[in-house]
Every structure is written in C-alpha cells, then in structure tokens.
Amino acid sequence: NITVTHELAKRLMEAGGEALSGQYLADEFGISRTAVWKHIKELEEKGYTIESIKKRGYILKEIPDTLEPIAIQPLLKTAKIGQVMEYIDSCPSTQILAHKFAQEGAPDGTVVLTETQTAGRGRLARKWDSAPQKGIWMSVILRPDVVPQKAPQFTLVAAVAVVRAIEEVTGLKPEIKWPNDILLNGRKCTGILTELQSDADGIQALIIGIGMNANQELEDFSPEVRDIATSLKMMDGKTVDRQELVRSLLFYLEQYTNLYIEQGFKMLKIMWESYSSTIGRPVRARMAKETLEGIAEGITDEGVLQLRTNDGKLHGIYSADIEM
Ligand code: BT5
C-alpha cells in the first residue's frame, strides 16, 4: 500500500546514501523481504533510481524531478505547513483547487502543488505563465485567527519567506518589489497572490498562491513575459532542486507566519525593508483610479506603502502596480 512505499522512500532519503538492508526494512515495517522488494520496484517505476547491493541492501541514488508529496514530505522540516499536501499533474490553477479544498474543510497548512497550470492567475485576473515542470506552482491554505483586514500583510510575510528560501537554496540575492513581486536583476522571478475566504465570523481561510520560476530557459516563457521575467536557473546557469526549494519555502513560510501571528509585523517589517527594492526610491504607483509619482518612503506597521509626492504630501497606498 501507498503508506509503506511512502515510508520506505522516507527511510531511504533519510539514510542519505547509506545502504539499508532488506532485512532491516522488513523488520521495521513488519513485512517480508519480498514485500520490501515489491515496494522498491514501485519506487523504481515512479522514476527513483535505487541501487541494490548484495548483502548490504538498498541505496537511494536519485529521485525524479517531481513535486509529488512522496518526494518532498520525508525531509520536510515543518510542524504544520505541508503536513497535508495535495498534488495534481496539471490543473487550471492551484488557487481554484485550494479554494475548493478550503471550503471542504482542508486543515490549516494544507499545500496544493502542480506541475503546470492551464489558467494560472495573478492579481486582477491577469495570467500567470506556468511552464510544465519548470517552476513551483503552489497554493497554501492558512486558517489564522486574524481579522480580514490583515490579509494583505500575509503577502509581505510570504515575500520574506520566498527571499529567504531562494537565498538559502541558490545563494542568489532577490529583492522585493512592493507588494508581491520578487525580482532578480530587476526581472520578476516570483509572484504572490493572497486571496481570502471570509464571513461574518472573520477569516475562514487565506489562500496564499506562490508562483516561482525555477528552471525555465528564456524560451520556456510566453512572449508576453519574456522581457520582464527570469528564472533562478537563468541567473546562475544551475538547475535548481525544486524539491529542496519547496521544503525551504514551506519552512520559512511557517517560521514567519508564526512570528507574524505571535508578535505582529514589527520584526518582519525590518526584514522586509532590508530586502526591498522599492523603499527610498522614486516610483510610479498605478492604481485603479489614479497614478501617483513620488518617493516610496517606507511601509507602515500594517504594510501600507507610504509614498511622498512632489508636493510634499504623504499618501498611504493599499494596492497598486509599482513602476521604478
Ligand atoms: C502575481 O500577480 O504576481 C501573482 C502570481 C501568482 C501565481 C501563483 S502560481 C500558483 C497560484 N495559482 C495561481 O493561479 N496563481 C498563483 P500580478 O502582480 O498581477 O502579476 C501578474 C503579471 O506578471 C502578468 O500580467 C505578467 O505581466 C507577469 N507574469 C506572468 N507570468 C509570469 C511568470 N511566470 N514570471 C514572471 N512574470 C510573469
């Protein structure tokens, strides 16, 4: 059954290249050595490369490049986020799926992952380009006990988590463009979309969508975004381990959402500002009804952008597209 295969993959991954004997595994799971062998075959059919050495046992050599839970969860360092993981090869949008799962009662911390989206979306119904197997297209369901007005701050908290994960896994140094873009060399490598399910009792669920360009080449992007987008691989020429990236991202997302819920935005604001490419710079903020130009002076404790126009007036910007 699936849980034994899952557990076996976990043991092999944790063994970190050491051999585990068939007898040891059989004893651990209370099954026969033949049954262990069958589960090994099942993993091989999924694309795992497992070496079996006479008298010593099984060594995991390679894991397929997939975002299936079985490849991610064993080494996941979180208590909550990602403990439940929904995976689907292809879907219109993980946001749509996550909304549905949330309505059906999916627990706090449920993660939805896919290899490609046919109708990936950004803010204001804009399209999100989601090349198959090249990125991380993910939605996280959170059920924090906070008022709906705080929802936009989760975008900023998630942005800090994204930057930390990219730094940790690749060594690259991304910047945050308020409110939801992560940039490398001025090009967008990640977008964040926070949506809300709420009623009279408050927030039922927050759906945090994260789209991260990992291993695309320029030609993997649609012509519309080729001039503005980049991937981690395009920055340093290295194929990034998407599984490690997801684990790191979920780890920091848990750390920082906990910090936010326990202590508010104060600490995170300091981190956010240190990664920001917006603050202290002249910017143009395009909003639904007007466009303002001025200096982005900072963000408030609520995450509202403070923009000072040339006439000296300070404006609080809640939502806009920023041009620099
Ligand atoms: C965003 O919107 O940046 C939020 C993107 C969220 C995507 C994730 S993927 C998993 C989850 N499921 C979904 O369906 N969505 C979430 P916004 O700030 O509105 O930016 C959208 C704009 O970014 C588009 O109009 C394009 O100009 C540009 N764009 C589209 N795809 C891109 C890509 N892959 N990389 C960089 N830029 C892109």
TrEMBL record:
GO function terms (MF aspect): ATP binding; biotin--[biotin carboxyl-carrier protein] ligase activity; DNA binding; transferase activity
Gene3D superfamilies according to UniProt: 2.30.30.100, Bira Bifunctional Protein, Domain 2, Winged helix-like DNA-binding domain superfamily/Winged helix DNA-binding domain
UniProt-annotated binding residues for biotin: 117, 121-123, 188
Record flagged with keyword Transcription regulation: yes
Record feature DNA-binding region, as residue ranges: 22-41
Catalytic activity field: biotin + L-lysyl-[protein] + ATP = N(6)-biotinyl-L-lysyl-[protein] + AMP + diphosphate + H(+)
Sequence ranges assigned to domain BPL/LPL catalytic in this UniProt record: 70-261
PROSITE patterns in the record: BPL_LPL_CATALYTIC
Biological-process GO terms, alphabetical: protein lipoylation; regulation of DNA-templated transcription
Keyword field: ATP-binding, Biotin, DNA-binding, Ligase, Nucleotide-binding, Repressor, Transcription, Transcription regulation
E.C. no: 6.3.4.15
Chain's role: Acts both as a biotin--[acetyl-CoA-carboxylase] ligase and a repressor.
Family: Belongs to the biotin--protein ligase family.
Name of the molecule in the record: Bifunctional ligase/repressor BirA
